[in-house]
Structures are given as C-alpha cells and as structure tokens.
Amino acid sequence: MRCDEFLRHYYDLRDGRLDDRRLLKQLDRHLARCRRCARYHASLRRGLEVLQETEEIDPSPSFRIRLEHRLRQEASIGDPLVPTNLGIAAALLLAAAVGLVFYEGLAATPGTAPAAVAAIADSDARPAASPTFAAAPLAPRSVDFTLPAFGDTAVQFSSSSSPLGTWVSLGR
Amino acid sequence: MSRVTTLEQTAPQVRDARPLDDAEVVAAYLAGDLHAFDELVARYQRRLLNFVYRTIGDRERAEDLVQEVFIRVHRHLHRFDQTKKFSTWIYTIASNLAKNELRNRSRNPLVLFQTIKKNWEADHRPLQFEDHHYRPDDLFRKRHLRELVEWAVDHLPEHHRVVFVLRELEGKTYEEIADITHCNLGTVKSRLNRARHRFAQVIEPWVD
User: What's the ipTM?
Assistant: First the structure.
C-alpha cells in the first residue's frame, strides 16, 4: 500500500467506519512499516488530545441575567407569530375596506349604477337645461359602522364616496 | 400567557428517579412547565458557548450569539418537530448564527474573494503530505503545543472548522453534522478529512 492510499482510508479507519477486514489489515501493516504515516497518525492523535484537554470557557456571570432580561422584553413585545386582538381587528377592517371598494367599483359600472350616478347619466343625456344637476349627485354617500370589540380594542370604520372618489377613515 | 421563566428558579418540577432527556424537557415546557426552559439553558449554554467561540474566535460575541440562540429557541419552540433531536436543532441555530457572523465579517470583497479561493483550493486539492520546511512565521513564536493547536483550529477555513469542531470537540456523528450544516454526508466527510489533514500538518513538526 502506498501513502496516498493509506491517507485515503485513514479517516474512515480512525472513525471506525471500515469493515473490510482485508483493507484494515493492509492499513495496519502500512502504519507499522511507514515511519512517515506513523508520525502523521501520532501527530493527529496528540493534537486532538491536546485540543480536547483545552479548558472550556464558561458563560460570564451576567449571561443569565441578560438572557432573562431579553426574554422578558420578548414576552412584552408578544409573539409576532400569534395574531393579537388588534391584528385580527386590522385584518377584518382591511377585508371590509377591500369589499367596500369592490362594491363601489361594481356600482360604478354601467347598468348597475346607483340612483345618484344614474341621475348624472340622465342629466348628461338631456340638454343641459340647468347647471344645478350636480348638487344632488355630488352629495357624498356615507357608510359608518363599528366592528365588534376585540379585547379592549373597538374599531370604527367610516367610508364616504362621491363621484370624486372614495374616502375611508378608521378610528379606535 | 407569558412563557418567560425566571432563570434562577429550579429545573422541571415533575421529576422521577432518572433525569429527563431533552425531548421530555421540551415536552414539559410545551405543556406549560415554565421552569423547563431554564433546564434547557442550563444544559446547553456552556456547550453552545464553546462551540460558537471555537467557530468565530471571539468570546464576547460568542456570548451574544448564544443569547440569540436561546431567544430563537424560546420564540420557535412550539414549531419544533418533536420527532427530531433537540440538540441537532439547537446546534443548527447556533451554527447558522456563527456562519452569519463570519459572513458579515467577510463582507469586504477582497477578503471574500480570498476566502472563496482558499476554500475552493482546499476542497479540490488531493490529500498529500506538505513540505515541513514551510512554517508560517507566527508559528515560530508559539512555544506551546496548546497554543499551536488553537492556532491550527482558528486558521481552518470556516466551513471546515465548523465540521471539525462538531466532530472532534462536540462528538457529533457524521449524520448529525450533516443535519446541522445542511450538507450531505459526502461533503461532511470531505470537509472533516481536509480539516483534520490540515490540522495534523500544522501539528506534526512540533510533535516528538
């Protein structure tokens, strides 16, 4: 066996991961005859012994105090993965807002126009007899409701829409 | 409800004659025994500190990272797959944090290039004996084998050092190291053998 072959199998030998008896015998024989490989083997063994004897370090005395402090901080912030009451309220609110905007979009499409919008369309169709037609249609429509309370949080939702746009306001 | 434990408090209340294994301590904590977390800290703080310290070579920073390990364990323990080994999971967190630390340090593009080049060369060169006449200058100043050994570990490439420390100091199996480092067994074996080879070559001229 040559030294490079020995080196190729050496670590498997060292870790007890070789079960080929013939190969084991060859490696043993090489180790017994080759001074260079024997020295290499002794060096690794000695180096690892010294490394494993090296004194371990201990956590500083303040380690646990600091950890406890950080854990308390963590608890006061709350687990970000668990939805809080406020989080649930916000999610419901967002869903309501999206629904309303969607509803407003549908309402603005031809054929489904609400009365105020239809009035504008009618007035456009007629010759403009009077500029006062805008007064009624421009009056905003409002929707106000309050979500059920979640814990100590109640969320008020208010939406106003007019031909100029839709406003959504939230309050606690 | 807050799951924070008071770390001065004692370990899990429910005890039988034999000590609880990690899986049982984790289960106790998840079942509401708040003291169980303290037991996990007691079991792993020293081991993780030494592992991270060996990996990054900075004691103070190692303490900060081990604190972060426990914070993450506390935050995510409810998602831990209890069919897996807890020690592998916690070492994976520690290993990832240590690697991130080393990566952040090597943000300098020149350092990064040199590291990649060195690691690539180390991974692809066949194992062979090195010329013993070559010794880094600072090694001549080191008189004691212990210092030399520590120097040798510190100067291993990062991904070699992690597997070397896990195997030779933490006593992990190849399979556990593969799980911790997210590598396959072949890569673990290759990195470990190259780390040992390099380590042996540094030590060899100084061993009688």
Answer: 0.70
